[in-house]
Amino acid sequence: MKITGDMLIGASAVRGTDATLRAFDPARNADLEPAFGGGGAAEVARACELAEAAFDDYRHAPLETRAQFLEAIADNITALGDTLIERAMAESALPKARLEGERARTVGQLRLFASLVREGRWLCATLDSAQPDRKPLPRSDLRLQKIPVGPVAVFGASNFPLAFSVAGGDTASAFAAGCPVVVKSHPAHLGTSELVGRAVQKAVADSGLPEGTFSLVVGAGNAIGEALVAHPAIQAVGFTGSRRGGLALVDIAAKRPVPIPVFAEMSSVNPVFALPGALAARGDTLAAGYIDSVTLGVGQFCTNPGLVIGLADPDLDDFIDNAAAAIEKKSTQTMLTAGIAAAYEDGVKQRDASAKRIATGEKSEASSGALPALYRVSAEEFLAKPQLAEEIFGPTSVIVICRDEDEMILVARGLEGQLTATLLMEQDDVELARRLLPVLERKAGRILANGFPTGVEVSYAMVHGGPYPATSDSRSTSVGAMAIERFLRPVCYQDLPAALLPEALADDNPLSLWRLRDGQLGPN
Fold this sequence. Notes:
Layout: E1 7-9, E2 12-14, E3 19-21, E4 24-25, E5 30-31, E6 36-38, H1 41-59, H2 63-79, H3 81-92, H4 96-119, E7 126-128, E8 142-148, E9 152-155, H5 169-177, E10 181-184, H6 190-206, E11 214-217, H7 223-230, E12 236-240, H8 243-254, E13 262-265, E14 271-274, H9 276-295, E15 307-311, H10 314-327, H11 338-352, E16 356-360, E17 373-378, H12 379-384, E18 396-402, H13 405-414, E19 418-424, H14 430-443, E20 444-449, E21 488-494, E22 515-517, E23 520-522
Parallel strand pairs: 7-22, 9-10, 9-12, 10-11, 12-13, 14-15, 14-19, 15-18, 17-18, 19-20
Antiparallel strand pairs: 1-2, 3-6, 4-5, 7-8, 8-21, 16-17, 22-23
Helix pairs in contact: 1-7, 2-4, 2-6, 3-4, 3-6, 4-5, 9-10, 13-14
């Protein structure tokens, strides 16, 4: 499939004339062909108008049609083969194996949502029978289902050109809910985005769905994204990126005449609590695993463990020594974009002014990029310098040394909201872990034991979210089956005639759903 540099507005390929953009190869420090035509408010308006026009037809399409549509996207992405992987490698400097794994995850989550659509449990079909003889007042017939909120805007992420981009989790879950999607391509992945966008566009056409079910817009700067969030047709936003970027979109959405939710994943340092029993039993192994996690993907994961908290004792000293030795063997690697690399360099310079750097990675002449860095501070210093708890996107982490358990609890309580929190523990650490757990439940969306947080399973139980500033809405997740809930809202139908009831709420249950009828859950 040829990359043309066009936007995809409904069924049409549209050449933007507001700006000229080029993707960039960070490994070769060179622009990539072709040039892309950036659009503006007019193209955004056309995409949003098409999405609004498509909404009712798409949401009322049979569930099987919607499920097959998601599977068709997965098949079309797979069919792109090496063309997709090679372009993504050129635009991101990510290795082939990583991108092949990310493609598998992207395809897998599309298929997961297809299965979820068929199952129908997300409709939350609920029936409360009329009680005309109830005293002192009768009860009406009441029935509830969830419906899609409307067209959704999705922003491609910098660090996942496939799994959090054009056909990533936000798009898949919005499609599953019954929402048309308008995607803004990330400027670092223009070619990759077009290839995937054409795979989605083809699936729309082959499934017989209205053309406005999907559009892909491209633009320079922030204006096109701001116009997208501000457009009255858009009813929700999915975003993965910086805190500054996410909050800017939240602000735009809140100031609309009709405000809408922005589900923004923004920043997290993912604290790891290294408890004494675990360090005594296997501190060397844990130190190696920790540094591998910190430097994985050049530290460009939102679940990167940017903080380790331990109790002062000889085993923690050994852990620190082993971690320092491990990071000194890690060499510089090219980051995703020049902007991310510059932000990382600036971040570690600022950290050098606040904390003691105890180890630095090995500078490689073969590549210019992020140099891994490890720091240590006392809990007292950490609590006095809030900047040490801020995320630096890249291969760096801080080890915080606490005098005692009470100080460790104090550090935990002072943390901002996080995507993850980890307990490295043995059986004799259970009492301390029990003290920490209630605090961590209030701080994080996912709590791990004896693992490291990099790597997010796409499943029914996964939560990839957390309290602010990890996300803008702690009640949601951007990964896993529950992600569909972001793009649904409940509607109650009171005393509607049978001829007007949605299929999910019909007496004869034509969709064969498990439903809650008069408080009893079953296929009724």
